[in-house]
Structures are given as structure tokens and as C-alpha cells.
Amino acid sequence: MSTTVLVTGSAGHLGEGLIRTLPGAGYRAIGLDLRRTAFTHYVGSITDREFVDRCMAGVDAVVHTATLHKPHVATHRRQDFVDVNVTGTLNLLEAATTAGVGAFVFTSTTSAFGRALTPDTAAATAWIIEDVVPLPRNIYGVTKVAAETLCEMFHRQFSLPCLVLRTSRFFPEPDDDGETRRTYDDANVKLNELSYRRADIEDGVGAHLLAPENAAAIGFGRDIISATTPFTRDDLRDLRTDAPAVLRRRAPGYEDIYRPRGWSMFPGIDRVYVNERARRELGWQPRYDFARAIEQMKAGQDPRSELARTIGSKGYHDTVFADGPYPVS
Fold first, then answer.
1. Is the pTM of this model over 0.90?
2. Residue 320: inside a domain, yes or no?
3. What is the DSSP letter of 42?
């Protein structure tokens, strides 16, 4: 009999990717979301404990991607973030424990690191590994860190295998920073970010497929899910002041793709996400990195995965905002 995986947030980017991919990997997938879509089997809120209990029947593993995101900070109350991101996670953890679920995977975010991601302008670029202490900058980060801590508590108290995956950017929506949108082509932004703070959704889904398989052996853990960076610790000082020169050393020839398009690397970057632990502990082998993207573009091909192209953009609000894809608090 195949393993049954409950995916929360199945109408979102990552949730849809999981529901599309799990059956091909030999799993039975069940989607839960507030919105009724082709990828949603149970329609309701994770803040409703009775609803969550019903959804947990017969489930072997939970992949919890449902959340209020950073783009909702300016449009939702702080209490909404607590209700969904903290209480909703607690409901799922309690229901999973009661039901004897074998693995719980929580999708967190590299935004949880908060102010640790932006050192003083005089400092070197931050090398972000899992041991960096989070310093949340908003209610989104606070509630994601709180939910991570709940996962750890349930592992310690009830031996529930829990893995936290802190994902970097994988969404295709335009950047939230107006100056970035005005200065750079959107595809230029995405490719730049792939060198230090972005992942293709196919790789993100792949990590989430491996997590339930490894949860029991690991017990509890946190892993950063981001594309493998071409940069090293030795680059950190120069990356803050002259990122194009460093990228030229680490990815020779990238400018042959950039120059005809009028693209450029950002002058400096403030952080680099490091995925070494996820690759080691999960056996994860991300494929979509900066070097591959450049080679794909040289061959006249789209650097994104087929899954990324299929899922496309979803947006975060029904409202259209004058100053960008979503308001920034």
C-alpha cells in the first residue's frame, strides 16, 4: 500500500507542485487548502481543529506548506498570522501526534533569519547556514520561528519526527522592491538571485519529497533549501562591494548572456544561503543553479524547470495595487 501524504496549502505554488509530483513518486497525495482547486481534496482552514482531525485520518506523513506569507504583512492583522501560522501548525502537530503520523515536514522560510540577513553596510556579506540565530523583522518571521519551535517541541515531547525546511525564494511573482523592479528586468533579477537566494520550485519539491523519507532517521532538523551557490566564504568581503567581479570569477562567461540583454549583476549582495546540510542529510541533489541556467540560456532554452513553467504565477491578493504586486509594510 502506498504512503499517504497530506499536503496543506495545496493551492499554492509549492503545494500544487507537491500534489502534481507525489503520485509519480509512488505516494498517495491529499491536498488541503482554503481554496477549491484541482489540487485540493479537503477545503477548509487549518485553524479549525475538527476539520484538521478529519483530514488526518489514514495519513502517514504531513507536508505543511500552508501559511500567511510576507506579502500579507501589510494586508492582514498580526493576529491573523498567529492564528494561521502558529495555531494552525499546532492543530496539525496535535492531530498528527494523535493519529500516529510517521513524519511531519514544515515549510518554513529563509525570511525567518530576518535582520541576520542584512549585516551593517560596512560588514562582509553574511554566510547563512542553519546555525545562524534568527532575528525576525516582522510578524511573518516571528510566527514562522514560533511554528518551527513547536515542531521541535513535539519531536522532543512526543517523538514525532519533524523536519523544518527553510526555503528561499521560488515564486515567479515580480520583486516586492519598487527600485529593483524599475532598475532590472524581472528575468535578470531571478537569475541574479539564483546565485545566492533563490531556488527553482522543482528542486524545492524534490527536497520536500525526500524529507518524509528521512525524518525518522534524523528525528528533528532544520535545513536551508536554496540553489547551490557558486560563491565561497572567501568571496564574502568582495561580494558586498563588487558582486559582478566575484561572479565573473566563479561563473566565467556569464556576461556573454547578460550583455546582449542589457542585464547586470547587482553591485553588491548582503547574504548567501548555503544548502550543504540539506544535500548531506537528505541526499538532496538540486539541479537548477546559476551555472545550469547560464548553459540553458546559451542553448536558447528557458532556464526554469518544466514544473515552474507549468505552475506559473499565482499572486497573493485578489486586489491589484498601484505600487506593485503587493503592498509592503
1. yes
2. no
3. E
